[in-house]
């Protein structure tokens, strides 16, 4: 336990998130986001999945408490050589007192104690106070990410190539072909931790080819990773999405953290995906 700034309502103390139940963590998370641009509420099942999929380390995550009331939450995802600040939020009435800044610094210090100097995060675009805070603490922008949705329905244009549908093991094996550092939500570890992962590879009549790894659950598809192996990414993307929505025409689709410079983006738009909102991805330090 450590102290944070004292506000008009008294001193604020920091407690390890591991000292709280999942129910308590879910409650404070939802309460800090009631007025957010994009609230994204969670229940206990989703919070449990979130912690597991994204490697949130509750021994290095924190809840800010004032008296007997939880007023803020911040979680730290931890992987080899990198950390991720997430679920950071302060109750509306307790903002602008330095709680969010102190909580972020505490998360960065926890990462430092583990010998990790590189941190990632995403902030919703137009969340100006949070964006300014992260810039102040040494984070820098690396790009914009799209969150997109497509309602159930058949594809706008039907596939013309050959498709091979892949089981979990074969789909996840494709991820090793990727280069660079994807957003935390789409990193290999996240997809390996997630349930219900599948894939599809396609070859068009002209030889263009590529693959898509995705999560298919009862009512929704999500967690897309798309790659072109040969040819035009837009044509390959249309074919992959055409195959997917032809086969699973009755499912809603929600994909997140697609870079705005992704070469497949026009294919998403052509297939009826619409932008829900944007995030700004930020780094602190250099990934080794």
List keywords for this structure.
288 residues; alpha+beta; 13 strands
Commentary on this structure:
The chain is an alpha+beta fold. The protein contains eight helices and 13 strands. It has helices at 22-32, 44-53, 99-113, 128-136, 168-173, 188-193, 233-247, 265-270, and strands spanning 2-7, 10-16, 62-66, 69-79, 82-90, 119-124, 140-150, 162-166, 197-203, 209-216, 220-230, 252-259, 274-284. The protein has a 13-stranded mixed sheet. Helix 7 (233-247) links the parallel strand 11 and strand 12. It starts with a strand and ends with a strand.
Layout of helices and strands, plus pairs?
Layout: E1 2-7, E2 10-16, H1 22-32, H2 44-53, E3 62-66, E4 69-79, E5 82-90, H3 99-113, E6 119-124, H4 128-136, E7 140-150, E8 162-166, H5 168-173, H6 188-193, E9 197-203, E10 209-216, E11 220-230, H7 233-247, E12 252-259, H8 265-270, E13 274-284
Structure, briefly:
With 288 residues, this protein is an alpha+beta fold. Helix content is 27%, strand content 36%. The chain has helices at residues 22-32, 44-53, 99-113, 128-136, 168-173, 188-193, 233-247, 265-270; strands spanning 2-7, 10-16, 62-66, 69-79, 82-90, 119-124, 140-150, 162-166, 197-203, 209-216, 220-230, 252-259, 274-284.
